[in-house]
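anyone seen this seq b4? input:
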Amino acid sequence: MRNYWAVAQFSRYIKPGYKLIAVDDLDTAGAISPDGKKVCSSMSMMD
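predicted toks r here
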């Protein structure tokens, strides 16, 4: 559930056309731009 919350909070700021990408950490979400030149990542630091 915690991972879902982190992705939900992060995904509202992803620009149209960006795609979520797989990351190895459950507390991190990532997205890549349509042209593949930009990557965004967000990490949740919750205890």
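The chain has a mean pLDDT of 77. The longest strand covers residues 28-32. kinda curious what u guys think
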